[in-house]
Amino acid sequence: LQQLERLRPVIAELRQRLPECVDAGLRQPPLFPSDARQILRHGAAGRALRPDQLQMGFLKVLKGSYMEEQVAAYDLKYRGIPPYEVLSTKWLPYSDVIRLKGVEDMVEVYYNSGQFPATMKLLEKRFQRPSEIFVNLAEYYEKNGLTGISHSRLARYEILYRFLEEDMREEERDHVTAAKVPETGQPSLADFRDSLMYDLYVRENIKSRPSFASDQSPYKKEVREFFMAEEENPKWLTDYAGFDSRQMVKMAHLEHMEDGTFVLFDYKKRDPLSGNAGAVRFVYKDGEETWQMK
Which helix (H) or strand (E) holds 282? Predict the structure, then answer.
């Protein structure tokens, strides 16, 4: 952890130039932290550096390796077939390894995929430690029989939203039982709906909307006027020459968010590294019928 602190300013500078991956440090000496909590603390320290990828690697016992020599000393139990992963040690029981495997899956789906950038920022405000996000998600998947299933991209968003609904209901119930006042400044369920819709559309102009999506029909007039204005005098959609407003509305997307803003997703202007669409947030001034970038 001290080494990570020393590396922090260096990584911050490199991050401006290159994407990076941080390994949670489960494969190098000291080989066996005392328990799963210590392993997760290592992972949380790596997450604090905000890497593009967070890798959790599990030890393997390969023939002729140092690990094979230490099987008796470390009381290693491991798979006898590839990939020969360690199942337990004298320090780490099998139950903790399984728990960490669930966390690894959640890290891959919700962090390393890069498909939830806005929502991850809100989750970090809701949970005290980054590791709690993935631990709680893994437990939710296990409890609801969702583990080991090949879920569609949209299903992952639906599952995350249901997880948040349940988590907030339980928190509210706990506050009522303990007669406590809920903390201020915490993201609301509406904030998460907005972030999830942002994350969905920033990747692609989705055809099927999730169940938690807000009704866009009250804003048809504003959307139509926006694209008509862009057809006549392009200000934001400058790469759509030759297309009329009816074509443009199918090629780009303008979403009204529950916080009152609109977000324009431009799929002709994608980030070369992430592939995400260009996104601009607007406020519509009804009386003036004008759009102001926020």
Answer: strand 277-285
